[in-house]
Request: fold
Amino acid sequence: MKILCFVQNDDSVINPVSKEAIALSQEIKNKLNGELDILTFNQDVSSELNQFEATNILVGNNQELENYNPLFYTSAVEHIINSNNYDLIIVGHTYQARDWVPRLSARKDIPFISDCIDYLIEDNVIQWVRSLYRAKINSQLKSKSQQSIISIQSGCFKADNIKNGQSEIKNIEIDLSHVNKTIVPGEKFKESGSQIDLTSSDVIISIGRGIGKEENIPMAKELAELTGGLLASSRPVVDSGWLDHSLQIGSSGQVVSPKLYLALGISGAIQHVVGMKGSNSIIAINKDPNAPIFELSDYGIIGDILEIIPKLNEAIKEV
Reply:
């Protein structure tokens, strides 16, 4: 099996979900005794990629690829695919990928299975797992085509599993003069608000709807301070205006993998789970014994966080 993993860069930094895509690609390559090429459009990123186990690091060169444009990205990846006849193309599910990958799928008539959270292999055939109906059920899909394009949700595979090794860097000049530039990118969007980087913390105290009201948040903030961690939240808390969006964990917020993730009053919707699934240790406290978060947790406490948090704070102070 020949695999192509596309790596998105953000200001010459590898996108986190692209690292997860690399780890997944390596895993499948080794299980199916295949070949893996990693593709980037950034020279600076290629030196870091060269430390990873792969057959080749492909660097697509063209001035039009220095800034994101779906038309040029689609044509450039199409050129790479035409030259190498890959069986499987893997990308991270990002806003950019949602824009250009469907174009590539339609142009090449290659099936595109998006938002995959897991996979299994039976008789050397890959079945891809997707969540449906707000994560109430999982579906298993396999492609009847010889070629497939797959995107993976962030947080579902661990970038820490990337294997180091030697590979050959190949610079590829790509002619894009035939592309009709009907899309002109505007200025890159930057979110305003807090600049807190939740990904840098070893401990995250995250609150959900179970916190009840804004006046109860200070007890969670105190717990974060006592543990040397940072306060974060699920979407309902942000939607209520109680915390800034920059503190939101999930598919529309930050993706974290701390040593300890304490989920307080969080039910465990898939949109939140994809943002913290990679945590080393997860402790959940929720008064609903059927909350989905318990299925993911290493430790679970069934109870009211409004009663437990103050007692936990006092216990830590006494240590």
